[in-house]
Amino acid sequence: MNTETRVQITENQIHPLSPIYNEYSKTLILGSFPSVKSRASMFYYAHPQNRFWRILPRIFNYHKTLETNEEKTQFLLERRIALWDVLHSCTIEGSSDSSIKDAVPNDLTFLLENLDIRRILCNGTTAYKLYNRFQKTLIGDAIEVLQLPSTSPANARFSEEMLEKIWKEALIHHK
Q1: How far apart are CA 108 and CA 106, in angstroms?
Q2: What residues form DSSP beta bridges with 147?
């Protein structure tokens, strides 16, 4: 019997992805830091069990599957959504937000000074806590910031239907 043991290595990681945005972006969705799968795939929310790319199209009544990174990017931009993460670098074990140490924030200044961002949606508790720790004093209360339940597969507390309802309220009904 051959058993495979997964060893999670804790190491310092630098965020490999550029933010997704254009001049029309109004809503900024912030995660904490890309998962191992996202870092390897070089795109946001790449883990097949992450529900982000399943719920967003349904929220906007988009009935096609978003297959490619280009399709996903275009989908966001057409809906005036920007996407990035709170952290520039950190020490992390695998994809576990709870293991994050030595956190260094991304500089949101460029996005917030050059775009008309009206609302920031934090994808999960860790993203929200990190945002408050690093960004709130710089941004203040000028922009509405909401904590939403994480779309991560680790967040088993929320069904996909519950996530869709809560995220829809934040994305559609708070315009």
Answers
A1: 6
A2: 122
Please determine, for residue 2, whether its predicted confidence score (pLDDT) is greater than 50. no
Q: What angle do CA 84, 174, 67 make, to 5 degrees?
A: 45
CA-wise closest residue to 128 among 74, 160, 170, 91: 170
pLDDT in tens, 42-74: 999 999 999 999 999 999 999 999 999 999 999
Higher pLDDT, 19 or 153: 19
Cβ count within 10 A of residue 100: 18
What domains can you pick out in the chain, each with its CATH number? 13-171 (3.40.470.10)
- State residue 68 phi and psi, 5-degree precision: -100, 160
Task: Give the number of other CB atoms < 10 A from CB of residue 151.
Answer: 25
The overall pTM is greater than 0.70: yes
102: nearest Cα among 91, 94, 110: 91
